[in-house]
Design a protein that fits this description.
- This protein is an all-alpha fold.
- The chain has one domain: ADP-ribosylation/Crystallin J1 (ADP-ribosylglycohydrolase fold, Orthogonal Bundle), CATH 1.10.4080.10.
- The chain is about 55% helix and about 0% strand.
- The chain contains 18 helices and no strands.
- Helix 14 packs antiparallel against helix 15.
- The radius of gyration is 18 Å and the shape is globular.
């Protein structure tokens, strides 16, 4: 696998083979403002949470379609999802809200509390639950030890089908709450993933996305935030592949085939959207147009884009059609004090 031009392009002696992604954050620091105004930390936190929900709701009606079957232009929050009305969100947002509520109530990441909220939601018979997530939660609900249940499902299914995007899809709020404690994320992100997804690639994807979200909330330019997050996970399982996919998804690597739910596809598509020049609406439409697991890919991309541009950068018409928007906003606002707590320097 080739080294990523995006990550390594600034290194001395690196020969640039040609690429499409930016290698400096200087221009994007100026580009991603709202009428020349840099978003505040609270606007970035709320923007990320609502961006996740918007991406989820935008992509939900087109989930699992091939790219060639996605309509153009994409109807934005105008079609129902399953039996739910337009503007509805899926399990992606439901689990992200569980995480936000837990962080707000506990004032920190508490794995047991997050898991209990996931179980309460699972017992409510939601309209959709991811396959691997459902298998793990079902065994835990039946009384099995949580860590043993998650590991057992991985052992039974094997690595070929156990690196789904069910943990990366909802992880961004952890990065928001620990925005100024990025070193802590290296320790906390893997256990968050392992509540349901123990595969090393899932842990890597969650670590990268939470680090990226944290850097954006701190106000780092998009390219710098992406590069530092990808560099931090480069030596972890799947880290080098994630670098490659940031440039390759939607181009040399289609993400609408049988392996469409792969966690690194989702993280790669999100970071790619983050560092492209388009605004939130443009990039979320493009991510959905790639087909595949459209709701999850757009949810993670929306979380990063919302952290980049702030809530004012989100499409106002979409927000008007988003179900539970006010409740999501309130849950995100509870994370703002946590985002301001300072810890160790960026890894």
């Amino acid at each position: 696998m080739t080294r990523s031009d995006f990550v390594h392009g600034d290194q001395e002696g690196y020969q640039r083979p040609g690429g499409t992604l930016p290698t400096s954050g200087r221009r994007d620091a100026l580009r991603h403002t709202y009428h020349g105004r840099v978003p505040s930390i609270d606007e970035r936190v709320v923007g990320s949470a609502l961006g996740l929900a918007l991406g989820d709701a935008l992509g939900a009606p087109f989930e699992f379609l091939r790219a060639r079957n996605i309509p153009e232009p994409i109807p934005a929050l105008e079609r129902p999802w399953l039996s739910e009305p337009p503007g509805s969100t899926t399990d992606d947002t439901a689990m992200a809200r569980n995480l936000m509520r837990s962080l707000g109530a506990c004032g920190r990441f508490d794995a047991a509390d997050v898991l209990e909220r996931h179980l309460e939601w699972f017992r409510s018979d939601p309209p959709d639950v991811g396959t691997l997530t459902g298998r793990v939660l079902r065994r835990i609900a039946a009384g099995e030890d949580p860590a043993a249940a998650a590991q057992a499902i991985w052992n039974e299914r094997g690595p070929e089908v156990s690196a789904g995007n069910g943990s990366v899809m909802y992880c961004a709020p952890l990065g928001l709450a620990y925005a100024n404690r990025p070193a802590d994320l290296l320790e906390l992100a893997p256990p968050l993933s392992a509540l349901t997804h123990v595969d090393g690639r899932c842990r890597t994807a969650v670590t990268a996305v939470t680090l990226g979200a944290a850097a954006l909330v701190r106000g780092e330019p998009a390219s710098d935030a992406a590069r530092s997050a990808l560099s931090a996970v480069e030596d972890l399982e799947g880290g080098e592949e994630l670098e490659f996919l940031v440039e390759a998804v939607g181009g040399s690597r289609a993400i609408d085939g049988p392996d469409q739910g792969f966690c690194l596809f989702t993280a790669g598509a999100a970071f790619q959207a983050l560092v492209r020049p388009g605004d939130v609406e443009t990039e979320l439409r493009r991510v959905v147009s790639l087909g595949g697991d459209t709701d999850t890919n757009a949810a993670v991309a929306g979380a990063l884009l919302g952290a980049r541009d702030g809530v004012r950068g989100l499409p106002s018409g979409w927000l008007d059609r988003l179900r539970d928007a006010d409740a999501i906003r309130a849950e995100a606002e509870a994370l703002v004090p946590l985002a301001g707590i300072r810890g160790q320097a960026t890894p």
